[in-house]
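To make this tangible, this section ends with a sequence with its structure tokens:
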Amino acid sequence: MLSPTAVAIRTALQSVLVALLVLGLKYLAYLLTGSVALYSDALESIINVAAAIGAYLALRVSARPADAGHPYGHSKAEYFSAVAEGVLIILAALSIIHAALPDFQHPRELNAPLTGLAISAGASVINFLWAGVLLRTGRARRSPALIADGRHVMSDVVTSVGVLGGLMIAKYTGWFILDPALAVLVALNILWSGYSLVRDSVGGLMDAAVDPGTEKRIRRAISTEAEGALEAHDLRTRHAGAVTFVEFHLVVPGDMTVEEAHAICDRLENALQLEVEGASVTIHVEPQEKAKHHGVLVL
């Protein structure tokens, strides 16, 4: 049975193949129609290919074990992949706007639109199904790279549906200016997607804390599993890819033996790793006189 890391790497490699297939279909749809909106859709698929390759390479790097030069492991490599994907998305959006502007002055009639639209619709169905796979696997693996890839592909689906609907209207009304207008709308949506990816990934690189719900669960686990200790304070958390680092100070009675304090720490580590998948726990034990009388009180 494959490990979660191996599953994530295999999924990322499959994502490259799916992205190449979708790119081929969307580019064929553009060739058949001459639609600048479908061209913009195909251009975004080029970014999907680059992003999928980046996610695959990042997952390969993040799977490497900790070493002397990287004692905390390589899990942050996934955030670099997500940031790079966001930048590529933004560049693609600017390219789409540049390509669409001339068509506002000279709108072009679409060629063989039904065939092209049908091919593009088929590509969107493939993207929709694959985005669901990426998001499920990414959340189960807690992989920023796969989640970013899944969100991007799902964003591509949304914009593709909008483009297809608009082009159908253009075909039956003769309002061919809708073609470049839709391309610009696609570009704006892609810009927002790219900005969101960069923002979220930079948060990971800057060691952002876990979300409030996860922190509440951590505090509850400490409170209920630290029997024999007095309090825990200076709780700090951060994400690094699939790993969640949890650090805190644990206050114990002054007359407690090292063995007894160690047993409490072992119990806490096990409880936190069950509560937060992939948790790496560091506990600093302190004597009673170091109590701050705030933080997490032991039940």
The beta strands are 231-240, 243-251, 279-286, 296-297.
